[in-house]
């Protein structure tokens, strides 16, 4: 046996090498077949496997090809192109001197400024090569930007649009997740900066840090929880009557074409309310995976259900005077429209009317017409009430901003 061992070593080594290669190949195949986060939980049916995120256009749609003529509005309202050529236009904020700041997300990774120069509307790229820069806020001359990793600030930005200063770091302890890691931020009437940390998954036990809305001082100190049980909010605003927080929330994917419905929520007891995720969706539907032993009545229900997978994003209370009085104090909500649903819907602006008792009396369509032949002509993301009372609407699908005004005729 000993004399023959040297002759068997090459064969043993060869076999071991072959097994190693097989193992490496299997590992590589597993890596290649590993599903992206958006596909986690997708049924293995033919119909479901064909559904993927709606691809964004790699370049903005030319102004003359934007779907203005397709938009339907209530009588007396008019839609027009405010600005075009803004790839992946998402969040909207207005500066003290009328500059419109625009964020982006997956496609562009840029921060823009739209301003008037010599009677012409000019689009500048302030910063590029950013990591999912969706969340922006303008407050007392400073522009805030939140990525999944950090919050930074540019001071005195409107006087330095052609040469922005280096940003100041406000907070750098965000978890940095890609799944639901992009932000929507806003300074509340209490002078604090509100920021969400979404669930790092489609459906999971999120842990102690995720699925919550936080607030902090403007220097990043004093972080505290405002609401929990929130899956992914990319839009919120504060009630002009009492300063309370209202927020949209996107519910889980791949459960059903028609369930669960996305939500509009109202925070009436900061730090004390749980809005259900991951155990209860839309206030009345226990999750089939994680909801066993849980009761939806133990959580705060939404004040309005906004349709299955409708993807409600930006929302604003109407505080202007241009629109008829019936709209004052109402909430304009941008519904991006579902990507993970066979039949497309939403891609619109709806109006939710507070009932004066902390709830919503009704939700009505406002801007429609952007779904045609089961495809999107545009996808609203954020809304902004300008100082003149008009409403701006961003559209990341086309890379444009629209202006809605009321003419009364």
Summarize the structure.
The chain is mainly β.
Structure characterization notes:
With 409 residues, this protein is mainly beta. The protein has helices at residues 5-33, 46-49, and strands at 77-83, 92-94, 100-102, 111-117, 120-127, 135-139, 142-146, 151-154, 168-171, 186-187, 193-197, 212-216, 224-228, 236-238, 245-249, 261-267, 280-281, 285-286, 304-308, 312-317, 331-335, 348-354, 360-367, 371-372, 375-376, 380-385, 391-395, 400-406. The chain has a four-stranded antiparallel β-sheet, with no helix packed on it. It has a four-stranded antiparallel β-sheet with strand order 2-3-4-5, with no helix packed on it. The longest helix is centred in the N-terminal third of the chain and has 29 residues, at 5-33. The relative contact order is 0.14.
Mean of residue pLDDT values:
92
Structural class: mainly beta
**Helix and strand element order:** HHEEEEEEEEEEEEEEEEEEEEEEEEEEEE
Instruction: State the strand order across the main sheet.
Output: 1-28-27-26
Q: Main sheet?
A: 4 strands, antiparallel
What is the share of helical residues? under 10%
Instruction: State the end-to-end CA separation.
Output: 102 Å
Low-confidence stretches: 1-32
Give me the number of helical elements: 2
Q: Say how many strands there are.
A: 28
The share of residues in extended strands comes to 25-35%
* Shape descriptor: globular
Q: State Rg.
A: 24 Å
């Amino acid at each position: 046996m000993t004399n023959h061992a040297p002759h068997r070593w090459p064969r043993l080594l060869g076999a071991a090498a072959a097994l190693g290669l097989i193992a490496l190949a299997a590992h590589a195949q597993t890596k290649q077949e590993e599903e992206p986060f958006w596909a986690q939980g997708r049924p293995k049916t033919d119909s479901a496997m064909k559904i993927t995120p709606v691809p964004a256009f790699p370049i903005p749609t030319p102004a003359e090809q934007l779907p203005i003529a397709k938009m339907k509005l209530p009588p007396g309202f008019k839609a027009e192109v405010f600005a075009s050529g803004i790839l992946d236009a998402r969040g909207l904020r207005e500066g003290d001197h009328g500059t419109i700041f625009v964020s982006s997300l997956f496609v562009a990774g840029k921060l823009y400024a739209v301003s008037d120069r010599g009677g012409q509307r000019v689009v500048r790229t302030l910063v590029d090569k950013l990591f999912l820069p969706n969340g922006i806020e303008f407050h007392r001359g400073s522009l805030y930007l939140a990525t999944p990793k950090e919050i930074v600030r540019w001071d005195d930005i409107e006087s330095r649009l052609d040469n922005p200063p280096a940003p100041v770091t406000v907070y750098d302890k965000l978890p940095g997740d890609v799944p639901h890691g992009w932000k929507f931020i806003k300074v509340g009437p209490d002078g604090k900066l509100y920021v969400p940390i979404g669930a790092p998954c489609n459906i999971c036990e999120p842990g102690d840090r995720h699925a919550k809305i936080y607030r902090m001082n403007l220097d990043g100190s004093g972080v505290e929880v405002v609401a929990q049980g929130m899956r992914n909010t990319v839009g919120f605003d504060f009630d002009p009557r009492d300063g309370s927080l209202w927020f949209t929330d996107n519910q889980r994917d791949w459960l059903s074409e028609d369930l669960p419905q996305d939500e509009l929520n109202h925070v009436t007891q900061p730090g004390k309310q749980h809005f259900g995720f991951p155990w209860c969706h839309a206030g009345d539907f226990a999750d089939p995976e994680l909801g066993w032993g849980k009761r939806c009545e133990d959580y705060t229900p939404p004040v309005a259900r906004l349709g299955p997978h409708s993807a409600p994003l930006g929302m604003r209370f109407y505080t202007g005077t241009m629109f008829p009085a019936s709209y004052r104090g109402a909430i304009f909500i941008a519904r991006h429209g579902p990507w993970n649903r066979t039949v497309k819907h939403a891609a619109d602006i709806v109006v939710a009317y507070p009932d004066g008792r902390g709830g919503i009396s009704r939700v009505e369509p406002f801007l429609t017409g952007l779904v045609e032949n089961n495809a999107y002509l545009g996808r609203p993301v954020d809304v902004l009430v300008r100082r003149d009372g008009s409403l701006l609407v961003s559209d990341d699908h086309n890379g444009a901003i629209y202006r809605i005004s009321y003419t009364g005729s």
